[in-house]
Amino acid sequence: MSGTITINSTDLANAIKPQLLQMPEITQQPYSYIIWTDGTNYYAKNGKTGQIDYSGSDASTVIQSVLDAVSTQKRSVIYIAEGIYKMSKGVKIKSNVYIKGSLAGEYLLNDTQGISTNGTILYAYGTAPDEKILYVDTVNFNYTAISKVRIENILVYGDNNPGGTTQDLRGIGFWCDGYEANKMFGIVELINFFTTKTAGGILLRYVTQIRLDKVILHDANPGIDASKLSTNPENYYAIAYLRNLIEDNYIGQLQVGGLYTGNSNNIGVRILGMSRSVIHKISAYNIPKGIGIYADVVNTTNIGILEANDHSTQATVGRSIIASFGHGTTIDQILMYNQDANASYIRTLDNAIVPVRLIYIEDDLGNRYGINIDKYVKVGTLILKGIENVGHPWWSSWQTPDIVQDLTSGTISGIKKTGTATFSGDGTTTQFKIAHGLVSKPAKILITPGSSDAKGTFYVTADNTYIYVNYASAPPSGTNNIVLYWYAET
Fold this sequence. Notes:
The protein has helices spanning 9-16, 59-69, 402-406, and strands at 33-37, 42-46, 52-56, 77-80, 83-87, 91-93, 97-100, 120-124, 132-136, 148-157, 172-177, 185-196, 200-220, 224-225, 237-245, 249-251, 254-259, 266-274, 277-285, 290-298, 301-309, 319-325, 330-337, 344-348, 354-362, 371-373, 377-388, 412-424, 431-435, 444-449, 458-462, 466-471, 481-489. By secondary structure, it is mainly β. It folds into 2 domains: 120-414; 416-489, Sandwich (Immunoglobulin-like), CATH 2.60.40. The strands form 2 sheets. The protein has a 30-stranded mixed β-sheet that branches. Residues 1-29, 106-113 and 388-410 have low confidence and may be disordered.
């Protein structure tokens, strides 16, 4: 047998390093580069030439080399296969790029056993606390006329000591600040994007359009320090910081949860300036000593659900939601649970009429704190569940009772009060009045005789001020008082 056998550089590399043959099925799809790991080193294969252009033991260096290589292209697709990618520093995105990871399941992390490999994980290992792991370099961005960055199926993990006794939290997940280039950046899309145990989640500022869909950011410490921004600094730390966003923004699901520090300036989601947008759901959980959602100057935006749920007895100076909405804004539901201190505020801008179908407040902690609502907020139904009203129809954290007049259905549900009423029996009185102190006529009333003289056949009626206990025949007179235990709820 005669002939020539040609071995190209890729074949030779694969023969020397068999692990390079173990690329996943994602390599069959069109791509500019695919990046993968064998558990120790990281490799980047050129989708056009088939060559292994970059490799090394630091994922940051390999990923940055790829991003630099595609910066001369008008658009590119980079696949990062399932695995853990240790990042000694952040990387800069300099051109239109679509970075896609692997998402094999709903959850990418198992806190009890460290990091799971069930997905693409950028592990901020040894980075500075404020290091931006995925950083859009808007100043040196190419092809600005069609600027767009999309990140999908990525988890940024920031704990340098998984499973240890201390939390050494590192990195900010994603950062795009058009102000740094003194111009609006184009389009940013984050789809199935997660951060956990990082120093911050995401910052989007001076961006024309955003799309956030299933963006879940947990356990930041302390959060993005907004006071360090280059213009109009705010003294807040936020997990998600969204500012000066215009035109057709879309938020499908944005969820934040968990700030480790007890700083009273902590915020879950900060929105300042948003127009012509659609928000399906924003949720904030476990924000001790801070504000769950802080939104201001939100105009012409359709909002499905704003939800703040503290589940924390630490929130001793916290508010669930502070928001100011402008003309053209509609809201389906505002939901607040377990607000442990201070009233929240819902305001409007320039006397804008903002309809809200439902405001629901549930306080299982029993601290009786509520919400101040501007009279231009037109509420369909207000439900206050588990709120005890003590001594006054509106507890001190409410500014005015204007909301009563602004309820389109005239319904305030769920306020409860209990008490003991004592009367002197005269043998002739058949009706006893109990001042319930609720904001409206009770929907539920329970009367229990508290003394033998109070027993008998009776029925109960009520109005906005009193509960009336009507006996079929007058209770007996005597030295014993007529005692009635009562419960009322709107």
